[in-house]
Predict the structure.
Amino acid sequence: MVEILRDKEEVDSFRDRVDGGVREDSVEDFLSSNPLIDWSRVEYRKYQIDIARSSIDKNTLVILPTALGKTMIAVYVSAHYLYMYPGKKILVLAPTKPLVNQLKEKFSSILRIEKNSTVVLTGELNPEDRMNLWISRNVRIFFATPEVVKNDLERGLSLEDFSLVIFDEAHRARGEYSYTKIAQAYFSHTSKPRILALTASPGADKEKVREIVEKLRIENVEYRSEYDEDVVEYVHGVEMEVKWVEFSENYKKYLRILKESLHEYLSRLSEFYRLEKDIEKISKKDLVKIGEEISSKLKSRETKHKGYLWNALILQSISLIIYHMIELLTSQGTYTLKRFLEDIDKENRQAYKKLNNDKRFRILLESLKENLEDHPKLKILLDELERELKNNSSSRIIVFTQYRDTTEYLMKILREKNMRAHIFIGHRSGSSLHMSQKQQLEILKMFREGFIQVLIATSIGEEGIDIPQCNLVIFYEPIPSEIRFIQRKGRTGRIKPGRCLILVTRGTIEEAYLRKAFRKIKNLRRTVKELSNELKHDRIINYMEDNMEELKELEKNKQRSFVKGKVGCEGDASIGGRGQTLSLDSFLKEKSIQHQHVSLGKLAKKLYEIVLTYGEKGVNSDFLIEELKNCGYEEKHVKKVLRRLLKAKKLHKEHGLIFPFVKLKYEKSRLAGEDSLRKYKIFVEKILQGRAVVIVNDKWRAVVSSEMNDEMIPLKKGSEYIIVGRLLQVNGKLHLRLYGILRKL
């Protein structure tokens, strides 16, 4: 048995108190003074203790922005279970070996346990050696990738002796990913399973987040954003910047060839398969769906004339390949496109063979071989890197890109510029360009120690890797996934403010990807909050079902009541909010309480804020309605609020576009030759009782009192706006008469 550094009498005493029903504050006191933790190596943060305490007796999903210490929460909870259950073990899972090793190092540096009581299990160990370690009485904490554990479960591994399983990067626990198989096995092996799931973002899609909750049997969600009071002092901030690039004439020529080819193949596809949209409107996502439909019909025995469908499937595949080529050209450049065309030349798949026989693509490949023109992004990238390293030669920079060929090309260019750059990619069987897990760990070590200045990484660098000194993160292309966006951005700003730069090509799919990621990030908080409320509601139901007889007895005797899900004050047994009572029998019968109350005031504010982001340009009314429907509002409510705001002269509609009404007011003033209304840029410096202090045009400080503010939404501290107003002198002080906001910057 491993010898843990602690006082046995103290442990037994504490266990006795827990078994007898320890108070919640005692758990908190113990969490913050656990003798298994080397407190000299810990920066005490109360929110981490609060979240750990909440995770002790419930399967918990912790959603915490990067650099706020998810790993420390895992350490606190693990220390509690090690202390309370000395005969049990803990399993810590992470999707990549570098992350597994990082977690092991963190745990080992803080926990006061014997060195041989932690172990990393990898596929490099043969299965027999791994099984011997699994059953070892010396090892208390196992760190592993999910594939290793899944394989060992299939060989007969039992998780019966594990008191806690930790899933890092828990947003992966969906579909057929190994996390789901491990969770299923854990629940079947032990009578008292406890799960701690950690992620920076579970995603904004409610159904996908619900799948994570169901797969891991989550009972409790602990969520903090960077704006919450208990974490804000630890947030260092990341300055976000988007830089736009324009195509050269050569790139436009190549793009024209690809788009014409795509149009032709889609037209031929429409001859064999009915398309739901016009050819010009078919997206990559639509093509994937069409491919799934055709494949499904080909598998069906009832389908006749399968020859037509086979032709359609080949044309769909070719169209999808051309779409991919367009993305490579627009986001990566001619080098990556050339490499892809060369790889096609070696493939035997029928779709690739047909493309190889298309003269346009052979001519395109020859043209690229003769003239490899760099993507316009490359110049901006080099300028940014040179500026950063000139200002701070010890800077660490990560450049993210989706494609391995691009990492290789960028490394070559940066090294020619005398920058210490290296690629950081995953292991892929069959690929000539890959890194072993050992190489990955070596590269990370060199990056941390400063031997490498610029790390050029694919998606493997996005999750969990902690480089405290990383000053700058660059997206070589935007990505539509909010999870990956948050992960990439989170590699900087960990111990001091950082920068994040996104390179975007105008007039391409990259613009849509950027908008999509931003929209999903905005929806994340709402999704998590709704799901958290659902889980609290489920816990009330479960409590009542588990204690049904006792509760009915309480109701019968009217000695105590069940108010808001807790046994407490005298009165009838009931549940509900203010002034709302539901009988216990009705509640148990229905199993849920459904409330549907639409706050038109809240919707009006949301709608108005969207319009302000578009300002004088206006926003299409149909798009506005769809945007709010995506936020969960019903179309009839959106239209009702829109009509009210138009009638109240808060908004103005013209040629199908919606504007702030003050735009019309300003234009009429100018046409009439009046000079009383002017446009100003303001920065809100302070919000005080009944007034705001603003900086006008970066020059003057002025006061906006509530009596001189016609705007329907409150000004926010730290925000910038373009407004219509007048500057006035009142008692020797400069005041701003605010007629309305034209645009929020």
